Amino acid sequence: MKHLLTTATLEPSWATTLLDTAAELKKTLLGRQVRKLPTLRGRTVITLFYENSTRTRVSFEVAGKWMSADVVNVSVGGSSVSKGESLRDTALTLAAVGADCVIIRHPASGAAHRLATWLEGTGTAVINAGDGMHEHPTQALLDAATLRERLGDLAGKRIGIVGDLLHSRVARSNVHLLRTLGAEVVLVAPPTLVPVGVEQWGVPVSYDLDAELPALDAVMLLRVQAERMHGGYFPSAKEYSIAYGLNEARLRMLPEHAVVLHPGPMLRGMEIASAVADSPRAAITDQVSNGVHMRMAVLYHLLAGEEAVA
């Protein structure tokens, strides 16, 4: 594996390998006071984030440091990007200074793929940490890791993805990956937040959340991305919450074993009630902690090959 840019072309064997490696790393670090492995000693990992992030950026940094890599965070505002430097020149500069891996988040769909093309032959790996409204592969992987912990084998499990499908790279990556792992996926959203061409995703679309909940093994709520919206997609936050928010009454409609996920940041009271977000049924903090181990696994397979993990 040279880069991680998408889940759409991720082979089932690779997906399973990444999930298994993350689980093994989590087990290896369990109970350690010093969570440090020597696996990536001498490697340089650079994060290049053109969009704000808490969970993704911090978990990549922690993942790299727990594996003894040298992690450098490039602030776009404090770099030559603010002077007008192109993404291509920035990427080539980072490769020239010795980056073994560049982790990029960018508002333009396809930016990570273009970066990988520019860095072809340099030996620098590229990880897509979110490109526009396109994909977010490591989020999908950590979601799958969390679901496997709670539900076991995902083959045949029915997962509902609910909310702002139109602007969600998380939804796209999860649909690809969950189907690869054998799960059934149903999309639930207001008609105005369903992308044109969604039928090409190969999964059913519903506009009635209450009708879907009793048959779900897990429900994944999406953030309403107001910063990407220009115009009215629904009457009000209250109306959205009434139709598509997961409250306590709707939580009771799910099977007892069903899991609640959210990639964050959560809009409490709109997408999800606080009582639901903080309930034992929710695995939202598990997603965050699993994100570190999942990103460790990705860095390991990109940069360390078959070398020993521990």
From TrEMBL:
Location of the Aspartate/ornithine carbamoyltransferase Asp/Orn-binding domain: 156-302
Top-level taxon: Bacteria
Amino acids binding carbamoyl phosphate: 55-56, 105, 136, 139, 264-265
MF annotations from Gene Ontology: amino acid binding; aspartate carbamoyltransferase activity
Annotated Aspartate/ornithine carbamoyltransferase carbamoyl-P binding domain residues: 2-149
Catalytic reaction annotation: carbamoyl phosphate + L-aspartate = N-carbamoyl-L-aspartate + phosphate + H(+)
Keyword field contains Transferase: yes
Keyword Transferase: yes
Protein name, entry field: Aspartate carbamoyltransferase
Species in which this protein is naturally found: Crossiella cryophila
Gene: pyrB
